Amino acid sequence: MYKPLLTADDIYKKEFKTGLRGYVIEDVDGYLDQVIKDYEGFEREIDRLKRELEETKASSSVGIKREERRVEPEVAPAPANPSNYDMLRRISNLEKAVFGRPHNEE
Fold first, then answer.
1. Looking at the record, which segments are called Disordered (predicted)?
2. 63 and 80 share one domain
3. Which of 40, 50, 71, 102 is most buried by a 10 A CB count?
């Protein structure tokens, strides 16, 4: 990842030498204030994007794990005239799909 050469603090603390025909100090200071604001904005945006990326990575890995665990139950089509036995078997299959199989199943 690219790391800028200067931080907002580096730019703020920069001092320019003056000469006979030097720059107008107020103009240089005003310009540097704009540069500092840009750097601070870039740093905030980079931090926000890093957090967003980490959250996305975390949520996608959790989503994959949940999806891997989910197993769709195979449900047979309902007969046209279901008997009590068929209804109980379907309910049992649905309960197993929702709640899981008991540990001491025979």
1. 57-84
2. no
3. 40
